[in-house]
Amino acid sequence: MKNEIKLQTKVETSLPGIDVKKISLKILLYAALILYAVITLGPFIWSVITSLKPTSEISTFSVNIKTLTLENYRMILTKFPFGRWFFNSLLVALIVTTGNILFNSMAGYALARINFPGRNFLFMLVLALMMIPGQVVMVPTYILLSRLGWVNTYIGLTVPFLFSNFGIFLMRQFFLSLPKELEEAAIIDGMSRWGIFFRIALPLAKPALATQFIFMFTGNWNSFLWPSLLASSEDMYTLPVGLNSFYGQYYQFWNQVMAGALLLTLPTIVVFLVFQRYFVKGISTTGLK
After folding, report:
1. Helix (H, G, I), strand (E, B) or coil at 287
2. What is the pLDDT of residues 42-95, one digit of tens each?
3. What is the DSSP string of 146-169?
4. Which residues contact 30 (CB under 8 A, 6 or more apart)?
């Protein structure tokens, strides 16, 4: 009888299949992730609340829901050339991003698939140029653009940045992962090299193109250094430069400064949300894990 009771208790304890250690580890993991999310989202939530506060309450930590208002956003959009700055940032970011996607893809495809003299040397040169800080070439680049008369123009804000060494490397690594049999079959069917590139290689490179789009758009949208050097008049300011001048004039009105900062952040959030499913795949398939 005792043996039957012991056997029954052992069976009962093993039936549920509950692993206490795994459950405890999951609880700790989720708790750590929740804590990290709170720490990460805390400043953003504070910025949103501050942008909705009236000026009389920006120095207080308490939040009065009844006094929250959109007046700060209305003031920025109506009393300052915010629309002009937004247009400049959008135009520059789209032109530079489009140029990078096209030229970096062409260069990356050539380095990955076309055999020509000096191909390996050019690729090593691309890698070497990635190691040079941008500050090193800042002065000669500015002097060159100044002599060309491109300072304070859209040409100066876009043309020098239409390609990047990182983008070329990114696209080359992706094109190397594509099977050569697809191109060989296209060549047998009589397709030209341009046809293979535009009809086969680019459509298959959507993950890498989406990754590049996110990097280039966010980088140029948030770019401050070069636009601040090349844009000398207020009507040529991009949004980060204009917001910085706004911050210098109205630094005591943190509610208005936070409203402008959130307007600057929104487009990059939208771009990432739209392309995020391609972003992870693009990173994992280009040797940048």
Report:
1. coil
2. 888 888 888 888 878 877 777 888 888 888 888 888 877 888 999 999 999 999
3. HHHT-TTSHHHHHGGGS--HHHHH
4. none
Question: Exposed (0-12), middle (13-18) or buried (19+): which is 34, by Cβ within 10 Å?
Answer: exposed
236-280 per-position pLDDT tens digit: 999 889 888 766 555 567 788 888 888 888 888 888 787 777 666
73-284: CATH topology: MetI-like fold (1.10.3720)
State how far the Cα of 51 lies from the Cα of 68, in Å rounded to an integer: 9
- The per-residue pLDDT for range 120-150, each reduced to its tens digit, is 999 999 989 888 888 888 889 999 999 999 9
Q: How many CB atoms lie within 10 A of CB 114?
A: 10
Q: Check if the beta carbon of residue 258 is closer than 8 Å to that of residue 44.
A: no
For the chain, the structural domain boundaries read 2-52, 73-284
- CB neighbour list of residue 262: distance below 8 Å, 6 or more residues apart: 47, 48, 51
Q: SS3 for 81?
A: coil
> What's the token pair of residue 50?
């501050």
Planar angle of CA 273, 222, 130, nearest 5 degrees: 100
C-alpha–C-alpha distance, residues 98 and 92, integer Å: 10
The DSSP string of 177-246 is HS-HHHHHHHHHTT--HHHHIIIIIHHHTHHHHHHHHHHHHHHHHS--HHHHHH--SGGG--HHHHHHHH
Token pair for 51: 């942008």
Give the integer Cα–Cα distance in Å for 51 and 197.
48
Question: Would you state the structure tokens that stand for residue 155, as one six-digit string?
Answer: 């040409």
182-211 CB burial, b ≥16 within 10 A, e <16: ebeebeeeebeeeebbeebbbebbebbbbb
Could you tell me which residues come within 8 angstroms of residue 57 by beta carbon, excluding any fewer than 6 positions away?
64, 67
